[in-house]
């Protein structure tokens, strides 16, 4: 099987990390990409490499990231080693910002992107439940959730308003219409 990058996008609180972990559990051939983030270590949600902004800038300038962007006051980077891993045949899942999709499609022409969606009520409940944002920050994130995807973004919508199991099953049907890899 040839390698590919599968982007996962969607607003904060939609359950991107939960869906990604559910997919990896259901399809062991899928692997998660560990991002580099200018966030304090150990805040949960995903396994990431925490760095200071100065180190991030240095590494971006040295070409260590195939993709990087800023969102919510933080910088995110996807390691350039992803290209090698795909060339070796790996199937990789990466949490991307909607804003970086045009660049991601340039770097990875075969990129398949799932746009995880949920109702505003579901998003508000999940954001409040994770306890990382103030009420004002939750309001800002909900406002961002309604913004359209970048023009030309090639995505497939996937609702995550139901159970995680249902969402993962629907994602598997989209990602592997012929046969799920072992």
**What is the H level of CATH, i.e. the homologous superfamily?**
P-loop containing nucleotide triphosphate hydrolases
The domain count comes to 1
CATH topology: Rossmann fold
Task: Specify Rg, calculated over alpha carbons.
Answer: 16 Å
What would a concise description of this structure say?
The protein has 182 residues and is α/β, with parallel strands linked by helices. The protein has helices at 16-26, 53-61, 81-87, 101-107, 120-130, 135-145, 164-175, and strands spanning 4-9, 30-32, 36-37, 49-50, 65-71, 74-79, 91-95, 112-117, 156-159. The radius of gyration is 16 Å and the shape is globular.
Q: Explain this structure to me?
A:
The protein is α/β, with parallel strands linked by helices. It has a single domain, classed as 3-Layer(aba) Sandwich (Rossmann fold), CATH 3.40.50.300. It has seven helices and nine strands. Strand 5 and strand 6 form a beta hairpin. Helix 1 crosses helix 7 and helix 5 runs antiparallel to helix 6. The mean pLDDT is about 90. One of its GO terms (cellular component) is cytosol. It is an enzyme of class 2 (transferase).
């Amino acid at each position: 099987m040839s390698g590919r990058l599968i982007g996962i996008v969607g607003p904060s609180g939609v359950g991107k990390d939960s869906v990604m972990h559910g997919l990896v559990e259901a399809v062991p051939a899928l692997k998660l990409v560990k991002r580099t983030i200018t966030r304090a270590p150990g805040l949960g949600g995903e396994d990431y490499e925490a760095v200071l902004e100065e180190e991030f800038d240095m590494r971006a300038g040295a070409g260590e990231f195939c993709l990087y962007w800023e969102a919510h006051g933080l910088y995110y980077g996807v390691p350039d080693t992803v290209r090698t891993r795909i060339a070796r045949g790996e199937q990789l899942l990466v949490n991307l910002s909607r804003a970086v999709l045009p660049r991601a499609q340039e770097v990875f022409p075969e990129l398949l992107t799932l746009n995880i969606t949920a109702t505003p009520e579901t998003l508000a409940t999940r954001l409040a439940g994770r306890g990382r944002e103030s009420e004002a920050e939750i309001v800002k994130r909900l406002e961002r959730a309604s913004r359209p995807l970048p023009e030309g973004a090639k995505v497939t919508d996937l609702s995550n308003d139901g159970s995680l199991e249902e969402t993962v099953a629907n994602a598997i049907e989209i990602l592997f219409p012929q046969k799920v890899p072992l």
